[in-house]
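Try this one yourself first.
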């Protein structure tokens, strides 16, 4: 039971973290692309 609860907590945290990471990667990718377009 305890193991399942901790697993759920991990999954729940992952759901909150994943979108932030995706957004950061997207923003970084766009900035990187813009820099290469300029130079």
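Now uncover the answer:
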């Amino acid at each position: 039971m305890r193991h399942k609860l901790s697993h759920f907590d991990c999954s729940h945290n992952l759901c909150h973290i994943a979108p932030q990471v995706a957004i950061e990667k997207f923003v970084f990718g766009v900035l990187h692309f813009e820099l290469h377009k300029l130079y």
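Discussion: Helices lie at 2-38. Residues 22 and 28 are 10 Å apart (CA to CA).
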